[in-house]
From TrEMBL:
Biochemical pathway: Purine metabolism; GMP biosynthesis; GMP from XMP (L-Gln route): step 1/1
Reaction equations catalysed: XMP + L-glutamine + ATP + H2O = GMP + L-glutamate + AMP + diphosphate + 2 H(+)
Record-linked Pfam families: GATase, GMP_synt_C, tRNA_Me_trans
Species this chain originates from: Geodia barretti
GO MF annotations in UniProt: ATP binding; GMP synthase activity
A GO CC annotation given for this chain: cytosol
Binding-site positions, ATP: S219, G220, G221, V222, D223, S224, S225
CDD domains from the UniProt entry: GATase1_GMP_Synthase, GMP_synthase_C
Name of the protein in its database record: GMP synthase [glutamine-hydrolyzing]
InterPro entries recorded: Class_I_gatase-like, GATASE, GMP_synth_C, GMP_synth_GATase, GMP_synthase, GMPS_ATP_PPase_dom, Rossmann-like_a/b/a_fold
Top-level taxon: Eukaryota
Function noted in UniProt: Catalyzes the conversion of xanthine monophosphate (XMP) to GMP in the presence of glutamine and ATP through an adenyl-XMP intermediate.
Keyword ATP-binding on entry: yes
Keywords: ATP-binding, Glutamine amidotransferase, GMP biosynthesis, Ligase, Nucleotide-binding, Purine biosynthesis
Length: 509
């Protein structure tokens, strides 16, 4: 494995992802991590990330002694490079001005290490203020740019540094450079495939839970589905999944989950029909946050009731992903990860008496999808667009009633049918309908109508933090509009939401 030491760069995740794309497992650790925890990963190489600090800042993150003492190859990137030079006794100085963006790297003719296979001049992406003035010991410069006399260095075996960012797309040869480090220099074989992940994880789950019973809240979303499949592969009938139909699901969703997981894949699935409970609790509720809270609380009650019937279960499986883990990671909770992990299943309370099993804890979303395919999950589960826990309730402006849920479900089904028909479903982050509480006047035939306006929302995003509205073709919008107004009585107007996030949010509530 390759361990990526995080000095706070916005690109740290990206480094780990790139290494994994080379089929080598990599994990991110904080700069303050101890060798005791790092050695569990069994690293063959260390990458020091960039970061916003200057090595002379008070409290600037430092290179831990284990990085120097471990004896394995170290690649410093940007701040990581400067901190390494500083630690090894060289000199780093504040640059006259920040260098940001494109630069051309001239490669020394004799580098057969990091820059092996590359020659002449290659475009690279810079982002730094300080620069290396003098290299310590037997380190030598193997690449420079117009502004940076030392943009790449090595001692030929143990120490490597790059002032630019090989992990970003703007450095087109970045992957060959990282591959040189990981494969040639560190000797990693590149056998971290979805298939091997499944084999290893199945073994680990079997060791972890033994002959105990495990329960899993299955929503039909990608994460809980893949987690459930891994558990099923590992422990078969010791796993019981609970699927709660809260009445806030999309058209056909509850049937699809039962069909896929119970009938086709053979999982032990308890279907809990809680439609009435949720709809009754939501009567008269119009405030978005109260809706969320009400739904969250009711979910806990329903889940506790269902889990209570399985009183011999002492493990709870969750589909927690790596980005959530990195967010909450500190050196202290690394060693005791289980205790501090947040339950992500609709906010289950901490005092439920379960130990957690989280087989996806070290995976990014796209890796979860590959594992899902490897496990034989159908593509319509693996490539499903995200759907919020509170479901259609936060897409109905105003009170949630059975009638309005049915209206929205029909509108939403038409949107998804047409988006699929246009071959756009997988390329869109989320696409859905919103039922507004505005009624407007229309005319159908010779009659005046007075019905609800339905809004269509389609956005693209990488991580839901920011989003842009999708430029849907007019023909697709026209088809959606015509079908909704004709097929859904009670809705007589369709509008398209052209707000990005920020300033809008993806959901309307
Ligand atoms: P917003 O509307 O905040 O949504 O831009 C960002 C992403 O989060 C989803 N979302 C939720 N998911 N419970 C969830 O599980 C919620 O209460 C919730 N609210 C928003 C939303 O669908 C989008 O993907």
């Amino acid at each position: 494995a390759i361990v990526v030491v995080d000095f706070g760069s916005q690109y740290t995740h990206l480094i780990a992802r790139r290494i994994r794309e080379l089929r080598v497992y990599s994990e991110i650790v904080p700069a303050t991590a101890s060798w005791e925890t790092v050695q569990l990963i069994n690293p063959r190489g260390i990458i020091l990330s960039g970061g916003p600090a200057s090595v002379y800042d008070v409290g600037a993150p430092e290179i831990a002694d284990w990085i120097i003492d471990s004896g394995i190859p170290v690649l410093g990137i940007c701040y990581g490079m400067q901190a390494l030079v500083h630690k090894l006794g060289g000199e780093v100085v504040a640059g006259d001005q920040r260098e940001y963006g494109h630069a051309d790297l001239s490669i020394a003719a004799d580098d057969d290490g990091l820059l092996s296979g590359l020659s002449g001049s290659i475009p690279v992406w810079m982002s730094h203020g300080d620069k290396v003035e003098r290299l310590p010991g037997n380190l030598r410069t193997v690449g420079h740019t117009n502004n940076t006399s030392c943009a790449a260095f090595t001692d030929g075996e143990r120490w490597f540094g790059l002032q630019f960012h090989p992990e970003v797309q703007h450095t087109p040869d970045g992957m060959s450079i990282l591959a040189n480090f990981v494969k040639k220099i560190c000797g990693c074989p590149g056998n971290w495939t979805p298939g091997n992940f499944v084999t290893d994880t199945v073994k680990r789950i079997q060791e972890q839970v033994g002959s105990d019973r495990v329960i899993c809240a299955l929503s039909g979303g990608v994460d809980s589905s893949v987690a459930a499949m891994l558990l099923h592969r590992a422990i078969g009938s010791q796993l019981t999944c609970i699927f709660v139909n809260n009445g806030l699901l999309r058209h056909g969703e509850a049937e699809q989950v039962q069909e896929t997981f119970h009938r086709n894949l053979g999982l032990d699935l308890r279907y809990v029909d809680a439609e009435d409970r949720f709809v009754n609790r939501l009567a008269g509720v119009t405030d978005p946050e109260v809706k969320r809270k009400t739904i969250g609380e009711e979910f806990i009650r329903v889940f506790e009731d269902a889990a209570g019937e399985l009183d011999d279960a002492n493990w709870l499986a969750q589909g927690t992903l790596y980005p959530d883990v990195i967010e909450s990671e500190t050196p202290e909770n690394r060693t005791s990860a289980r205790i501090k992990t947040h339950h992500n299943v609709g906010g289950l309370p901490e005092d439920m008496n379960f130990e957690l099993v989280e087989p996806l804890r070290y995976l990014f979303k796209d890796e979860v999808r590959s594992v899902g395919l490897e496990l034989g999950l159908p593509e319509d589960i693996v490539y499903r667009q995200p759907f919020p826990g509170p479901g259609l309730a936060i897409r109905i402006i105003g009170e949630v009633t059975r009638e309005r849920l049915d209206l929205l479900r029909d509108c939403d089904r038409i949107v998804l049918e047409e988006i699929r028909q246009a071959g756009m479903y997988r390329d869109i982050w989320q696409s859905f309908a919103v039922l507004t509480d505005n009624r407007t006047v229309g005319v159908m035939g010779d009659y005046r109508t007075y019905g609800y306006a339905c809004a269509i929302r389609a956005v693209n995003s990488d991580d839901a933090m920011t989003a842009d509205w999708v430029r849907l073709p007019y023909e697709v919008l026209a088809e959606i509009s015509t079908r909704i107004v004709n097929e859904v009585p009670g809705v007589n107007r369709v509008v398209y939401d052209i707000t990005s996030k920020p300033p809008g949010t993806i959901e309307w509530e």
